[in-house]
Structure formats: structure tokens, C-alpha cells
Amino acid sequence: MLAFWILAPIMVAAALGLLFARKAVHAALALAVVMISLAVLYAVQDAPFLFAVQIIVYTGAILMLFLFVLMLVGVDASDSIIETIRGQRIASILVGLTFAALLVLGVAQVSFGTVIGLGKANEGGNVPAVAKILFTRYVFAFEVTSALLITAALGAMVLAHRERLTPKPTQAALAAQRMRDYAATGKHPGPLPPPGVFARHNAVDTPALLPDGTAAPGSISRVLAARGTVKSAPEIAEEIKALTGEDSTVSGSAHTEGEG
């Protein structure tokens, strides 16, 4: 009971954060808190198999898959909120009411003692007991749940699919477009010059140089350009001459002293 009263407020707060979070990554992290807390409650209720499944499958696999998809693909805030499937709002309301009825029935069974005790349920081991009751008494519900998950996966694929309005550009079309841009605006048709083209090492502090000695804008980091720390050779020509003159004077005087 102590673990429940500690974890229950945390799970409720994380669930509210899941609902009201503005960023999808924050919502996924809140969902992770709910899943891990639920796994701990499974362990407290003497259900090690459900605890392991909750951690390995749901938290470790499915949720991490959500996070990877969000980080790689991203979520555009300008997505349209117009319903493209007719009747989905009514269907979601019906599914929500059905889920609420199942929760009420489950809580009522536990509250009025119609569920057998944990000792009898785990008789012979937790994993064999779960397998026996799952594939005998609740086999129909198990198969319906598996069909529901497959349907959800197919629905996600259908919703994420986007019809291409224009044909995919080929390599020849891209090359022709680069040449047209070069003829119209003077944009270089080749790739951007990487840093350190005329330097001894490839680093961000040695940008590519143009024929006049200035740094190519495409090889300069935007952060360094904003800070104004990039200086080209013509800008520091006077400093180079001054340093060269000082060095030659020092070396000449040293050479004279050696001769003397």
C-alpha cells in the first residue's frame, strides 16, 4: 500500500503532463514515468512476469521506438487539424466509453472481492499461472487485443502515408535545376565547400578560401559569422606585414651578432 500511495500521485501527475504537454517529446517522457511506475506496482503485487514485460517490452522497446521516431522525423506544429476520416470523432467517443466501462467493471470486481486472491492465482508459479489463464479463460480477449494492435499499426501507416503530388525528381532533373539556378542567380552548381580546403587539417576554424584570399561564406559556421570572429587574409594583411617585418628584423640582428 505504501508503494501505491507514493507512486499513484506521480502517475497521475505524469498522465496529466502527457495530456497537456505541448511538445511530443515531453509527452513521451511523461508516458515513460507512467509505465515505469506501473511496472513497480506489478512487482509489488507479486507479478514478476508482468513487471518484466512492462519494462522490457513497453518501456524499453515501444516507448523508445516512439522517442526515436519523434527525434528522427519530428513533429510539425503546422499540421492540419481538419478531420480527413469521416466518423472518427464518434468512433473515438464510443471507444472511450467502452474503455471507461471496462475500468469501472475491473475496479468493481476488485472492490467487492469477486477476484480470487494473489496466492491462489500464482499457485505453481507466476509465469505458468499467467500463461494458463491467458490461453484458456481469456484466450478470446487475448486474440481480440492482438487484432486490435495490428489494426492500430495499420491505421498508423495509413494516417502517416502522404500522397506525392509531384513526381520525385531524378538526378538529371536536380542537375538541370542547379544549372538553371547558376544561370539565373549565379548560385554555384557544385556542393558547398567544406572547411579546411586549403588548410593542413579539416577544422571549423580553417574555412575554404576563394581566389582573392577571402573565406568562402558557405564554409563558415553561422555561429562564428554572427560573432564576427572570422577574418580573411586581406583584412589582416597589415598585421601579417607587421609581424613579418618584426620577425625579419629579429632574425637579421641575431644573424649579425653571430657573425660578429
Rg calculated over all Cα atoms: 33 Å
CATH architecture of one domain: Up-down Bundle
Poorly predicted parts = 247-260
Cα shape: elongated
Strand content: under 5%
Quick check: average pLDDT?
75
What letter string, H or E per element, gives the SSE order? Answer: HHHHHHHHHH
Query: Percentage of helical residues?
Result: 55-70%
What is the CATH class designation of one domain? Mainly Alpha
Superfamily (CATH H level) name of one domain: NADH-ubiquinone/plastoquinone oxidoreductase chain 6, subunit NuoJ
Q: Sheet bearing the most strands, described?
A: none
Count every helix, treating DSSP H or I runs of 4 or more residues as helices: 10
Gap between N and C termini, in Å? 96 Å
Q: Which structural class fits the helix and strand makeup? A: mainly alpha
Enzyme class: translocase
Protein name: NADH-quinone oxidoreductase subunit J
Subcellular location: Cell membrane
Catalytic activity: a quinone + NADH + 5 H(+)(in) = a quinol + NAD(+) + 4 H(+)(out)
